[in-house]
Specification:
Elements: H1 12-38, H2 44-51, H3 54-82, H4 84-103, H5 108-136, H6 139-170, H7 175-191, H8 210-229, H9 239-260, H10 269-272, H11 277-306, H12 310-315, H13 318-338, E1 340-341, H14 344-362, H15 366-381, H16 383-395, H17 400-428, H18 448-472, E2 478-479
Antiparallel strand pairs: 1-2
Helix pairs in contact: 1-5, 1-6, 1-7, 2-3, 3-4, 3-5, 3-8, 3-17, 4-5, 4-7, 5-17, 6-13, 6-16, 8-9, 8-17, 11-16, 11-17, 11-18, 13-15, 13-16, 14-15, 14-16, 14-18, 16-17, 17-18
Length: 484
């Protein structure tokens, strides 16, 4: 046990009271960021009926995820250098602006732009909230509170489709943008009352890595455009396809070289050099990809494959919510009790993989669907609290922002990549346009071809989770040690 990495921090009695004072303040931005990732999931068929096909509405989700992903590393560095309160306040202001634009969006292009602006703010809400936990709480107590935060984060994310489905069923999807505005304004007011926190100025002359930000955004967007539009907007074997894929690959290569030459790089490549960090990042990517595929596409499948309403399709994700929240809370308590972290993700991913395979092959309904989704959620819920704690301890106090950014970046990249790959498997591989047929009552019509394609994609998702379990077995164990 003595060879395990550990972290020495102040005693719980010195740090915990301050944490309790700001718990709700930090939780609110995290809740908003997680909720808005999935709030439109059950509403996408209704948006498709207003503005375009289902294949295009994939970008309503992807724009948000991309906006968050490209800013997460920036927020992590700025929070370390300038203090986390003022940077978090700026992130909340951007989020409010995007919500207002989405409320008034006249078409699909404006809606996608609004979601991207929301995402630019949401990247800061996610990473800075996690960093504040690490700043205020000692390691052993942090394990328990990471479990609570993971439960809140997961509850908000999976409640998004439930709330969205109910709103769409009884009102209109635009109310989903209107509803978050007062909550975001309240969060901004509360955050401004926090102390600025510790600052760790960057070396003189390092500045903001504009080239890194631009390169990361260009490389990620090109790759996701190639995945989501290939097969229905352009042929996989075509000039457009080759340009997008080749251009993305080239930019990624140049970006890695540029980041290695910077003293304060945008991407946390220094953390990735630590033992076990690549496996940790890949495990988070697999977990996030799987979770968001289920959140975004299961409500769509239930509407076009089983004829359920938007409200019932959203409510069908409640068991997944319960499983994810329970898994996160159990992981936090288990780590706090045992004093070590790092072993749970492999078992959680393996269990989720088996259950997702059953989901694909059995076409479950009602109680059977609920039992499978709660089981999947329980397995996935064991991963994120463990990974957050392991990366913070390995990164150390000075790099808490960069460490939180690494997990948040992997999570956002996984969510975007998983969404794009699932859309490619459903729309691109089959050539389906994603067009939506509406019934006389305004509901969404059945589409057996699309439902069959989703079953195959869910089967592939189960295999990816089993691969993720093998990768997670290489994540190191760490000890949770407080200084007496």
């Amino acid at each position: 046990m003595s060879s395990l990495p550990s972290e020495a921090l102040p005693t719980p009695s010195a740090a915990l009271p301050g944490f309790r004072r700001v718990f709700t303040v930090v939780m609110l931005p995290m809740f908003l960021a997680s909720l808005d990732q999935t709030l439109l999931a059950a509403a996408t068929p209704a948006i498709a009926a207003d503005f375009g096909g289902l294949a295009d509405t994939t970008w309503v989700s992807l724009a948000y995820l991309l906006g968050a992903m490209v800013t997460i590393p920036l927020y992590g560095r700025l929070g370390d250098q300038l203090g986390r309160r003022p940077v978090l306040a700026c992130a909340l202001a951007l989020f409010c602006a995007g919500s207002a634009l989405g409320l008034a969006a006249p078409g699909m292009g404006w809606l996608v732009a609004a979601r991207a602006l929301q995402g630019l703010g949401a990247g800061g809400l996610m990473v800075l909230s996690q960093a504040l936990i690490g700043e205020l709480v000692p390691a052993r107590e942090r394990a328990r509170y990471q479990g609570y935060f993971a439960a809140v984060f997961t509850l908000a994310g999976v409640s998004g489709p439930v709330i969205g489905g109910l709103v769409v069923q009884h009102a209109h999807w635009r109310w989903l943008f209107a509803g978050v505005l007062p909550i975001a304004a309240l969060g901004l007011w509360r955050v401004l009352g926090l102390p600025p926190g510790a600052r760790h100025p960057a070396p003189q002359g390092s500045g903001i890595d504009a080239w890194g930000i631009g390169g990361f955004a260009l490389a990620s967007t090109s790759l996701l455009l190639w995945l989501t539009f290939g097969g229905h907007r352009f042929a996989w074997v075509s000039g457009v396809s080759a340009a997008l894929f080749g251009g993305s690959l080239l930019v990624w290569m140049v970006l890695v070289l540029q980041q290695r030459q910077r003293g304060e790089p945008l991407l946390p490549l220094d953390l990735l050099a630590l033992r076990g960090m690549p496996a940790l990042g890949l495990s988070v990517i697999v977990t996030a990809a799987s979770m968001f595929c289920l959140i975004f596409f299961l409500p769509v499948y239930l509407q076009v494959g089983q004829g359920q309403s938007a409200a019932s399709a959203g409510l069908a994700l409640l068991p997944l919510t319960l499983g994810l929240a329970s898994g996160g809370a159990l992981a936090g308590r288990w780590m706090a009790h045992r004093g070590i972290a790092g072993t749970l993700p492999r078992w959680g991913l393996a269990w989720a993989g088996v259950m997702t395979g059953l989901l694909a092959w059995t076409e479950p309904r009602g109680l059977a669907l609920g039992l499978l989704t709660v089981s999947i959620g329980l397995g996935l819920g064991l991963v994120m609290p463990t990974m957050q704690l392991v990366v913070q301890i390995l990164g150390g106090q000075r790099h808490l922002g960069a460490a939180a950014a690494l997990v948040s970046l992997a999570r956002s990249f996984g969510a975007a990549l998983g969404t794009a790959l699932f859309a490619a498997a459903v729309f691109g591989a089959t050539g389906h346009s994603g067009s939506v047929a509406t019934t006389a009552s305004g509901g969404i019509g059945l589409d057996p071809q699309l439902a069959s394609a989703m079953h195959r994609a869910f089967a592939g998702l189960g295999l990816v989770l089993l691969l993720g379990a093998a990768i997670a077995a290489r994540v190191p164990q760490v000890r949770l040690v407080d200084q007496g």
